[in-house]
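Human: If only I could read backbone structure tokens as easily as an amino acid sequence. Take your time, and here it is.
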Amino acid sequence: MNTPAHTHTIDSRDDANERARQSTMLSPRFYTTDFDAFDRISVEGMRSQWDAMMQEYEGDNNHDHFQRDEAFQDELSAAMAKWSPELRQELFDFFVSSLTSEFSGCILYNEIRKKIENPDIQQLMTFMARDESRHAGFINQSLRDFGLNIDLGELKRNKHYTYFKPKYIIYATYLSEKIGYARYITIYRQLERHPELRFHPIFRWFERWCNDEFRHGESFALIMRANPDLLRGMNLWLIRFFLLAVYATMYVRDHQRPILHNAMGLEAAAYDYEVFRITNTITEQVFPIALDIDHPEFRSGLEHLLQIARAHEAAKDRGGLVGNLQRAWHAGRALVAFTRLYFVPVKTQAVLAEPRLRPTW
């Protein structure tokens, strides 16, 4: 059944802000961490590559990218006339989720910058917060076109914050930035081949935008390579967990927006596995393991998790005592399904000798 899991529409600014504030298993989260531990992180083992990367950030080759051109409004007006109500809703949901994710990074990086004295990490966080702020602001402009813009100050004050240890932040940020690159570049290349399918002008900005994401991931790759204990021993089990969590979340979330993907000429599962393939290739720069995305049990396990998520959402919509009991039952089923996926055999691989990559996809 290829239908969205959510039934709650975004028809007003209040709806959009409420969606951004939600804290669910699939919604982007806000994070806090151990700032003293971040202060102790050293990049000396990768000093020359680190300094070169900081020069790239300082050069700021995207400083003028996130500005609308003269064709933007005309293109938007022409595209809107062809939107179905369902596509409209899935696009708004995509915008709110993407903005929340970008703004989450901006807040976390700013907090780390303000609460540490380590000049290397402080400099990185300054640049990354700058980039994420631009991304969030640019998406918010597109929500403002429909009177749906997010009150970022209110979101910062009222969104629930989750505590993550610094190494969890490192793994999760590296993966989210790299998979974000893979997602955006796959969409960009598809619409580059088929411009007639570009139903919103914002997609013209995705190439240089995702190159920001790529560079953010490169920074955390250097942190991990400079601190190799993060990449061995028991930490491999954590890496395995974060890989699966990021991939599984993406798979379920993307199947909530089938109309959005179909409008681009993409099928959600095929799109996701292409993104997984790119991300697996990229993560050879740091991770000695990779998920076996072609393993039959991995593929069937993700599909099973998706069906459970849909059943959970239906129970949530039902509400009441029966709905709440069903939600608890499906949450338990999801935990079992995720655990089974976790123990699907992974691939081992040689880490690339050169820690830096270029966005060539």
About this structure: DSSP finds 14 helices and four strands in the chain. The domain at 13-289 is CATH 1.10.620 (Ribonucleotide Reductase, subunit A).
